[in-house]
């Protein structure tokens, strides 16, 4: 259960643009503030999924019946995916960078540090140089936020000694889940280069990201995690008033 004090509109009143992210999710990819380029080396990324531990363990067992169920659930239903693979789009970027992201994902699988040896990898690039790499380390770090994209952003921020990654671009094997996409927006990256969609990831046994997008489209009263709103809302807004009085800095 989530207990919430102020709605996002209250934060926006004091200059915090959190609501902007949710508005972005309602826009098609080609209309968003951060450029999305999809379908980069999608066939090669798909092979990583086909060899993933999760796919072999869960979906190939039992004669592949479960795999067929997943394909029917996810690949045949466009209504629950935030995007399509868009194969062949966004080929202005170099395949070498996506290949580097694939290698990062494979590294995580080999080390066994990625959650269930998941096929997710990401890199951050600036001026032709990789400044951040990351794969999923949720189990290793006991950190549910340690996705490939978030880890790559964290690494890049340390290298650049800044929380802003303006003029940087992120290459990720899979369309970011909502949390990771939020981190990309907070970091002010210029562009995202995506291998395959969350829909394909779901078909290979990784439905979490896709289901999280679906949750955002669901009314709060019907979501999996219960929410209680306006808990001491006035007191919570006083924190914003105090911040304004102290001339806090927006970032």
TrEMBL record:
Q: Where does the source fall among the domains of life? A: Eukaryota
InterPro entries listed in its UniProt record: CMP_dCMP_dom, Cytidine_deaminase-like
GO BP, sorted A to Z: purine nucleoside catabolic process
GO: which molecular function terms?
guanosine deaminase activity
The chain positions of domain CMP/dCMP-type deaminase read 92-207
| Protein name (Swiss-Prot/TrEMBL) | CMP/dCMP-type deaminase domain-containing protein
Instruction: Give the species.
Output: Vitrella brassicaformis
| Source organism phylogeny | Eukaryota, Sar, Alveolata, Colpodellida, Vitrellaceae
């Amino acid at each position: 259960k989530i207990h919430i004090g102020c709605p996002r509109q209250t934060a926006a009143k004091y200059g915090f643009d959190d609501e902007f992210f949710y508005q972005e999710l309602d826009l098609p990819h080609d209309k968003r503030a951060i450029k999305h380029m999809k379908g980069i080396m999608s066939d090669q990324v798909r092979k990583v999924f086909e060899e993933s531990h999760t796919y072999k363990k869960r979906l190939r067992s039992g004669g592949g019946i479960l795999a067929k169920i997943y394909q029917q659930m996810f690949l045949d239903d466009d209504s629950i995916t935030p995007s399509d693979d868009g194969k062949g789009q966004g080929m202005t970027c170099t395949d070498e960078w996506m290949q580097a992201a694939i290698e990062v994902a494979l590294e995580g699988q080999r080390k066994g540090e990625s959650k269930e040896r998941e096929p997710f990898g990401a890199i951050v690039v600036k001026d032709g140089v990789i400044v951040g790499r990351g794969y999923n380390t949720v189990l290793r770090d006991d950190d549910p936020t340690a996705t490939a994209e978030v880890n790559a952003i964290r690494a890049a921020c340390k290298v650049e000694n800044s929380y802003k990654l303006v003029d940087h671009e992120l290459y990720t094997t899979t369309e970011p889940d909502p949390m990771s996409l939020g981190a990309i927006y907070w970091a002010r990256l210029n562009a995202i280069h995506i291998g395959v969609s969350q829909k394909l990831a779901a078909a290979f046994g990784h439905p979490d990201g896709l289901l999280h997008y679906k949750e955002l489209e669901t009314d709060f009263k019907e979501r999996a995690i219960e929410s209680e709103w306006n808990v001491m809302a006035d007191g919570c807004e006083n924190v914003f008033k105090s911040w304004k009085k102290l001339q806090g800095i927006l970032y």
